[in-house]
Design goal:
This protein has helices spanning 53-63, 81-86, 165-177, 196-199, 203-209, and strands spanning 11-15, 19-26, 31-38, 44-47, 65-69, 90-93, 106-107, 113-116, 119-125, 134-137, 143-147, 150-151, 154-155, 185-188, 194-195. The chain is of the alpha/beta class. The longest helix is centred in the C-terminal third of the chain and has 13 residues, at 165-177.
């Protein structure tokens, strides 16, 4: 069950027999923060410790978060990291973006499995927005956490230092569109969710407009 409405407070937006996803929006950039929880064990993973660390720590305690993964290293996605680590929660990021973080514990390679209880989360390297941008999928579910790589209506911004438009287009096409089913739910770093099926037909339009 998926609820696509705009999230203003912490809200359960997806659940099935395996897992549940809680979403909240924090900070002046209105960053989406997702908590993916294994329903069997109660263990949870937080995606992008963006801002408002006291609030995120409170949610983490309520929902069983014991690990944080970062979709990339831009400032608006990482401001709560020091507080999370100080609370004993490990933080991981792709090695290409590691130097952008104030601190971290682990680096994540492409195409590995992170275990959240008995729930498997797969890493997908999708450079372009930043060199180390990474998406996360959950086999057995339709979930795809896309960070700032893919949004409703196109790719993430590539005008920042380290961004590259041809690279993000290649990442979206080869790592997402050619791999995932049309019904896959794309949960981005800002704004509303979308699906692979809704976005895939527009790839050539994005290439032609150049952003």
């Amino acid at each position: 069950m998926w609820n696509p409405q705009r999230v203003l407070t912490s809200q359960l937006i997806y659940e099935d027999a395996l897992c549940e996803v809680h979403q909240t929006v924090v900070g002046s950039f209105e960053n989406n923060v997702y908590i993916l929880r294994d329903r069997q064990s109660g263990e949870a993973l937080l995606i992008d410790a963006a801002d408002e660390h006291d609030y995120l720590l409170e949610l983490s305690g309520e929902l069983g978060v014991n690990f944080v993964v970062e979709t990339h290293g831009h400032h608006d996605h990482i401001q709560a990291i020091p507080a999370m680590r100080a609370a004993g929660i490990e933080v991981a990021v792709a090695p290409q973006d590691a130097d952008m973080l104030p601190s971290y514990d682990l680096t994540l390679d492409d195409d590995i499995a992170i275990m959240v209880g008995k729930l498997e989360v797969k890493t997908i390297a999708t450079p372009g927005h930043t060199p180390g941008s990474m998406c996360f999928s959950v086999p057995g579910t339709p979930l795809l956490f896309s960070g700032d790589t893919l949004f409703p209506g196109g790719p993430g911004n590539t005008t920042f230092e380290g961004g590259d438009f041809p690279t993000i287009i290649e990442s979206i096409n080869s790592r997402l569109f050619e791999v995932f089913e049309p019904g896959t739910l794309v949960l981005p770093g800002h704004g509303l969710a979308t699906t692979i099926g809704h976005e895939r037909p527009h790839l050539e339009e994005w290439v032609n407009r150049g952003w």
